[in-house]
Amino acid sequence: MGGVKTTTKQKIAFSVLFLCTLIVVLPVLFVLWAILKGGAPAINWQFLSTMPREGMREGGIYPAIIGTIYLVSLSVLFSLPIGLFAAIYLNEYAKDNLLTRLIRLAIVNLSGVSSVVYGLFGLALFVNFLKFGVSILSGALTLAIMNLPVIIIASTEALASVPFSFREVSLSLGASRWQTVRYSVLPNAIPGILTGAILSLARAAGETAPILFTVAAFYLPKLPKSIFDQAMALPYHLYIISTQIPNIKTEVRYGTALVLIGIVFSMNIFAVVIRAKFRKKKKW
Amino acid sequence: MRIRLFKEFIIEKLIFLSGIASILFVILIFVFLLKEGLSFFKEINLFKFISGKHWYPISEPEQFGILPMILGSLLVTLGAIIFAVPLSIGAAFYISEVAPGKIKDILKAGIEMLAAIPSVVLGFIGMITLVPLVKNVLHLPTGLTAFSGSIMLGLMSMPTIISISEDAINAVPKSYKEGALALGATRWQAMYRVTIYAALPGIIAASMLGIGRVIGETMAVMMITGNAAVIPHTFFQPVRTLTATIAAEMGETVYGSMHYYSLFAIGIILFIITFIINITADMVLHRKHK
Hints:
The complex is a heterodimer of chains A (284) and B (290).
Chain A: H1 6-39, H2 45-49, E1 52-53, E2 58-59, H3 62-93, H4 98-112, H5 115-129, H6 136-160, H7 164-172, H8 177-206, H9 209-212, H10 234-243, H11 250-281
Antiparallel strand pairs in A: 1-2
Helix pairs in contact in A: 1-11, 3-6, 3-8, 4-6, 5-6, 6-8, 7-8, 8-11, 10-11
Chain B: H1 2-43, H2 46-51, E1 55-56, E2 63-64, H3 67-98, H4 101-116, H5 119-138, H6 146-170, H7 174-182, H8 187-216, H9 219-224, H10 242-249, H11 258-287
Antiparallel strand pairs in B: 1-2
Helix pairs in contact in B: 1-11, 3-6, 3-8, 4-6, 5-6, 6-8, 7-8, 8-11, 10-11
């Protein structure tokens, strides 16, 4: 046979594929390294726990951290119940019909809508139409709808991984459909649902576009008092200090990015740990 | 007993309502975009809006042409896809077919991490590292270009394309590959002569969802493409995307002004574009199961 040997070809091909993967993964390491290196010097107790001063050039990012925590906690309060119930419907109740197909299409579509379009929607519905104003409530509701697909998909998977026999046993003992879901399916799906919820929280914490016109306060060196107040939020703060505020120390920018990444990643890691623990404990 | 039945009745109704909530929200989003955006189309016709070359929303007389932004979005998306799709497919094949167990897990974790980095953080890092790099290496007057945006957006679309392609590759029946191997093909030959064809619908759908992600991306693209609302001629000049226009200008509009409505009109167009992309991708994915 002429030409290059097929095994050599395979070696070359596999090396090229490996290179492709490296090009994807290396930037991640670079981004993390750059933020860690640039941001670490800025991190101290004062940076984390005090108000910004001098037009955000001095002081800390405390209100932005608190604002983000308020936002994501409130948003998950809305999205988790609806998302979980929607998943229960899809996995335990829905028949294979047009309605179910439409629901699935709607979920696909919700997860594909641009984040800035969610911002517009939140502005039109919550801020202007329902008169919640530019507030934590408007932003949290916007984020909640945006995050719904993540929670639904994760919860559906968690429910689907519970073996069918669990349901059969429960039903054959005379339990009703809801009792079966409540006492024999749900308890076994909790870790998976929790994982999904935490991942969606992490995503919400980093989103900027949906909160641009619904919550975000440019510079507000005090804490929000109620859910109808405006608030600062970490991702928006990072956007502002990177693009709108000249002559700010790069260290402060990196520091803010590091805190944001830190929050997002620690939630992700937490979710992964729960998932791993659950897998080990799996009884079936 | 009756109380229990009643309680279950209520709960099951709630479950059903939550089930259809997604449909409700899609409709709500569209209705509220229309509610604000339609007032705009009463004044300005759609064709003029899409083909207009000038965007001066607050000057006298005001001009609302979004052609520069449409082209900006298309250019950035095209650039992103050109390099993201081949790399992602390569990576998906490596991860699902070649990489040994432990390395596979590490690579997958790396890609999950990429997906988890907030857009604004990538925009920030892009501004500080990628933008000056592009400027210096290519000797451009500014590094805030469509090219920089394409690189960053390509990177951001990769986790989507890789994970869905990988699912498609894993879903190819083992017997296909085994058949090829039994006939004496190498693993590589089985991959590019058999597996890729069987996984093709999934890979196409994955790429489409990646495109959808890129078109809708806002923060990073706004921070690194320079935001110049002019018709772009090359990859190496500043552009502005549809998403960035909304994000950058909404804060300055007066509620109820033409400028305010015009940004909702852009939102409608974006919504329809992503809607079509996502539904088509889903249909491509779905067809495979038949």
